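Hi all, posting the design record for the shared folder.

TITLE: backbone redesign
STEP: 1 of 1
STRUCTURE INPUT:
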């Protein structure tokens, strides 16, 4: 008996286009003999099931069902492919938890915490997880440029606190550039985080729940052709993503252990991808993503393939894990 799977994609943030690509890759990859898949677009103005003829059918938000040709369809599981809000910040997780519908990403609290860079780093710091020096600002705060520079130095990164895909990020070299960078970040979020520049090898580490156990995937080394790993580097091919990373075994083991520790401290389930920069041989955590990209160009699918896990198995495993916890 095929399980009915809703693949949710889209979202409310600047990442919606990438999410649609991710969701379509999941749709194309899942085993059609095991799963009857439905593409569900979640936007602020509409929630719709979209069939292969691009016909839209409204989702009933009371029970997350859809009626097609006078037949009501309910779902056994939801595959979450929404990057950013509301799929990566806890809202959809809470909604499905209330409806008792299994879903493939982490829980509500873990999603909300990891989506908030400032809160996530502060929770992990007592466990000895190293991070860059940082300075928080909220919309409306007085901006003290001198205090910022004393705390984080130059160059530094100004980031939207709750955004992904490098939206709202600027690398600032001079004091005169801070205000524009802060204004740019506030277009994405009303909270920002300013971090010290870490000059070192950048790596990305995927961790998943696989066949009931925590599995760390092969490490990816990120070599951006640009000033940093920005949107163009991530999605338009302006970077090298080298899997496995060209780092010594000792460094690789160290960052793998930390990535696994982060996953387990935060009690994450499903997918995660965390980013680190090595400084003086020590990995410093940048952020944790709980709905990473699922396109064929995305890092975590590349890591899974390097580990011998095909995309249909990667995505199917996530569904089976979610169903097993129902």
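Okay, here is what came back for every position:
SEQUENCE:
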């Amino acid at each position: 008996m095929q399980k009915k799977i809703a693949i949710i994609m889209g979202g409310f943030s600047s990442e919606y286009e990438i999410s649609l690509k991710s969701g379509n890759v999941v749709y194309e990859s899942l085993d059609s003999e095991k799963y009857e898949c439905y593409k569900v677009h979640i936007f602020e103005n509409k929630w719709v099931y979209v069939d292969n003829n691009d016909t839209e059918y409204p989702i009933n938000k009371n029970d997350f069902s859809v009626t097609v040709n006078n037949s009501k369809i309910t779902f056994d599981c939801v595959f979450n492919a929404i990057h950013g809000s509301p799929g990566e910040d806890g809202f959809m997780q809470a909604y499905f938890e209330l409806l008792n519908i299994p879903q493939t990403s982490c829980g509500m609290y873990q999603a909300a915490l990891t989506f908030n860079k400032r809160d996530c780093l502060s929770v992990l710091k007592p466990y000895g997880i190293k991070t860059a020096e940082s300075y928080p600002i909220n919309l409306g705060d007085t901006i003290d440029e001198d205090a910022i520079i004393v705390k984080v130095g130059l160059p530094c990164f100004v980031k939207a606190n709750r955004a992904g895909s490098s939206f709202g990020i600027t690398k600032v070299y001079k004091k005169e550039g801070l205000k524009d960078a802060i204004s740019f970040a506030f277009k994405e979020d009303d909270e920002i985080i300013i971090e010290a520049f870490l000059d070192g090898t950048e790596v990305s580490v995927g961790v998943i729940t696989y066949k009931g156990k925590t599995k760390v995937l092969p490490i990816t080394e990120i070599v951006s052709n640009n000033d940093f790993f920005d949107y163009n580097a991530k999605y338009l091919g302006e970077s090298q993503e080298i899997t496995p990373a060209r780092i010594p075994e000792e460094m690789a083991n160290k960052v793998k252990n930390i990535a696994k520790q982060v996953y387990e401290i935060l009690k994450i389930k499903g997918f995660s991808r965390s980013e680190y920069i090595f400084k003086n041989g020590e990995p410093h955590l940048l952020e944790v993503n709980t709905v990473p990209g699922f396109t064929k160009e995305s890092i975590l699918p590349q890591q899974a393939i390097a580990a011998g896990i095909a995309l249909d198995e990667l995505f199917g495993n996530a569904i089976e894990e979610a169903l097993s916890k129902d």
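COMMENT: The chain has a mean pLDDT of 93.
Let me know if anyone wants the other runs.
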